[in-house]
């Protein structure tokens, strides 16, 4: 797998209760993050898991072969903007605790949808930082068309699936470059 600074990654983890619940309630990937830059020879992901942290991508994700992934590359931003946005997100959010209570929003929203009240859009627990929030802030920080593409999204109610939809619907901004399929465990370039 050859990720680059700025790449956006969506995880479709297949094991564990937490990823399965996230996938069930949001209808999409269970986790998302971006490649913030190269540190000491390793491309590192900035992610919000238990807290917002920088992890070597290959060691944390590539070698473990536990998840299916989709990787998208921002193609309308230059490398300097990608690096600057990665640094800015690191300085603003590194060490911030994960927003576990925010995750209650999706079961509540699903419940209201089941009883016919589809306009529920208020997260009652906005404290902390979840992965989709971090990725949304990163995409916004790229500015221009990237900021316009996500301007209607609320950080407290955005799911990884919302951001994946934008990556898929905006080939002028994001290029799907690779996927990993757990069946084979191999990374494969987009054909």
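^ structure tokens above, recovered residues below v
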């Amino acid at each position: 797998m050859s990720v680059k600074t700025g790449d956006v990654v969506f995880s479709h983890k297949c094991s564990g209760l937490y990823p399965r619940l996230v996938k069930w309630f949001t209808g999409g990937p269970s986790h998302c993050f971006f490649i913030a830059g190269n540190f000491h020879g390793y491309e590192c992901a900035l992610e919000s898991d238990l807290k917002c942290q920088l992890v070597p991508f290959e060691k944390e994700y590539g070698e473990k072969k536990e998840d299916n992934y989709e990787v998208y590359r921002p193609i309308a931003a230059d490398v300097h903007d990608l690096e600057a946005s990665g640094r800015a997100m690191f300085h603003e959010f590194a060490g911030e605790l994960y927003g576990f209570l925010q995750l209650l929003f999706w079961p509540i929203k699903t419940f209201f949808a089941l009883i016919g009240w589809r306009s529920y859009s208020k997260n009652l627990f906005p404290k902390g930082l979840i992965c989709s929030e971090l990725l949304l802030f990163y995409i916004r920080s790229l500015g221009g068309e990237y900021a316009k593409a996500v301007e209607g999204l609320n950080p407290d109610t955005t799911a990884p699936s919302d951001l994946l939809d934008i990556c898929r619907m905006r080939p002028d901004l994001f290029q799907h470059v690779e996927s990993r399929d757990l069946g084979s465990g191999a990374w494969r370039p987009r054909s």
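The chain has a mean pLDDT of 79.
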